[in-house]
Amino acid sequence: MQALADVQTRTVDPFTFEILSHRLHQITKEIGITLERVGGTVLTTQRHDYINALYRGNGDILSAGEGIAWHVACASFAVKHIIKRFADDEGIDPGDMFLLNDPYVAAVHQSDVYIMAPVHVDGRLVAWSATFVHVMDIGARSPGGFSPGATEVCQEGIRIAGIKLIERGKLRRDVFDAITNMTRNPVMVGLDLKCEIAANSVARKRMEEVCAQYGADLVEAVSADMIRYSEQVLRRRLLEIPDGSWEASAEIQASGTWTVKVKLTKTGDRLLFDFTGSDPQANVGVNFLYHATFGACYSGLMSILGWDVPRNHGAFAPIEVIAPPGTVVNAVPPAPVSMNTTGAGPVVKYVADLVLTQMVAASDRWRTEVIAKGTGHLRAQHAGISQRGWYYVGMFGGIDGSGGRGDADGVDCGGGVMTDHNVEWFESQYPFLYLFRRNIKDGGGPGKFRGGVGQELALTIHDAPEGRIKGIPFGVEGPRNSGQGLFGGYPAPPSLLTMRKGSDVGRLMAEGCSVDDIGTLGGEAISLPFREFELTTNDVLFNSNSGGGGYGDPLEREPEMVATDVEQGIVSDDIARRVYGVALKGNRVDMEETATLRSRLREDRQEAITLTGRRRANGSASNHDHLPADHPLREGLEIATNEGTAWVRCAHCKLLLAPEGEDWAGSCDRNLLPPTIAGPLMQPLEDRYLLEQIYCPACAALINTDIVEVE
Hints:
Elements: H1 14-38, H2 42-45, E1 50-56, E2 61-64, H3 69-86, E3 97-100, E4 112-121, E5 124-134, E6 163-167, E7 170-171, H4 173-180, H5 186-214, H6 216-239, E8 244-253, E9 257-267, E10 270-274, H7 290-304, E11 319-322, H8 344-361, E12 378-385, E13 391-395, H9 423-429, E14 432-439, E15 455-461, E16 468-475, E17 496-501, H10 505-510, E18 524-527, E19 533-536, E20 540-544, H11 559-567, H12 573-578, E21 584-585, E22 588-589, H13 591-607, E23 629-634, E24 637-642, E25 645-650, E26 656-659, E27 669-673, E28 689-695, E29 702-709
Parallel strand pairs: 10-11
Antiparallel strand pairs: 1-2, 1-5, 3-4, 3-6, 4-5, 6-7, 8-9, 9-10, 12-13, 12-16, 14-15, 15-20, 16-19, 17-18, 17-20, 21-22, 23-24, 24-25, 25-26, 27-28, 28-29
Helix pairs in contact: 1-5, 1-6, 3-7, 4-5, 5-6, 7-8
């Protein structure tokens, strides 16, 4: 963390600031612990799908815990809405708690239920505590809340724009019962609401104790200093990055395709995210809302440039977001939204992160904070009669891998806030049996720094009284739903959700066979559509989760790192040789053969014939090593000045490509290759997509790899 002495934020002495700011953060951690210990569903207790945060009396973020960042931002909108709606009429009194889950007000979709508690000291409103949990059912058209068949928000469950759930310390039983009894799981939904009540009660008590010990005025002064601190650190870092504009786009794929576009303009210490040009809102529930789009930009800034800065309202100040109403990034009623957290959400976060990544890559100091991002995944909920004879709604697990970074590999099956459930717990609660759950070999995008691999799992129903269980897919349906490569890094294989209908799993298990290869199970292989489906006896559900995209040219990866990946079962021998150019003898690298192999692969790049005809480069053939590098443009490229003219040049061989501001890519070799060049798991992209690769025409360094549609 940047030294406090370097930032002029204090109105109180530094010792008091440190003591109180850390104590406030500890309160947020205790909120999270309470949610997990009291909560009733796996999403809260094991997967950490919640927020735990404190807000100032006016609704500004005071201190956020380790929960989901975009919800932290959305909850600020929620608290401000409650203040506006209740302050003058019903009142905001000591002991009150408010519930809100209306996505057209502040929540993201109805399944995300926010509960907010005011904190009063001597009758004065001084702060708020806020939580959300993803409840397992919300009374929507489909069990669990994700409703692929919904065409308007009214079909997606209970929608509450703000109501008093607790009044002056007393639970409003009529309100509580009305909400829970409109769901398919009133007991479990009720328990999740009670865990939020408990967590907010703990937060209120701790805040009252802090104010009693130090005085509410001092706590408020420290709160203001914390926000000023975060704002000033972020603004200072932004000033260290060159001004400019960067653009990105990506597709939401469900029953149709919708494009999200953004242009980031950095001027001084301010950021403008402009989503103008994004497609009109969809007729299925993938639509995002303005506060959620703002939250995605907030989350991106904090993760890329403010990862070590306290998460509070200070990060709001440098951000401006334009999101035209009636589009997929700012829908208007009655557009459906239930599937947006896994539909538009990952795509909006991806394009916001991508333009921030391009911005940060232009800074020599901050470029190592760059990370390859993904565009989503595909998973499913399940519902039916459990082995205990009661109706339930649950969610299949699965963890993605995170992308390669500017100085390190991605995290295998991790890198985010959420974690996976315990297998034994899952089997004891639901009528399923795990066949396997493991890392995916070759599941991360190759690169100088490899993307983290995702997780694959297979299950079959077991001890289901009715012999069938309903499934509801959610996520990004198309085959681009995975980690995208950055600066030459390869994309990761797509996330898949498939079923083996009428497989031999029952017979194989009865014979004592190990069932660890989905391809040996027989039966009919079915890709599950974006609508409800049914699993019956001997059906096997297979879910392959997204990996992280690679960062940089795979031929620049340290050979010993490739050898370690192969030894650990993360990378296959085939990919090690064919993509990384690493020759192995046992577990050891043959350095001489590796050098020869990599040289041959670079020659192959230069001799490759594109599927649409090859465009030869026009770059200058002379090597200008004497030119000073003013600043990096991105991995593999840099800016150099020659006689007053700034040029983009290859960072490896120093070949001049184009004057700064002109199309440097037009001076590069460009090849279109089958997706399976990155490995056999890319097969689902065939027939519709190709890999477009851009190389330096002199040294064949890989500068960019992208997925493009076949024309």
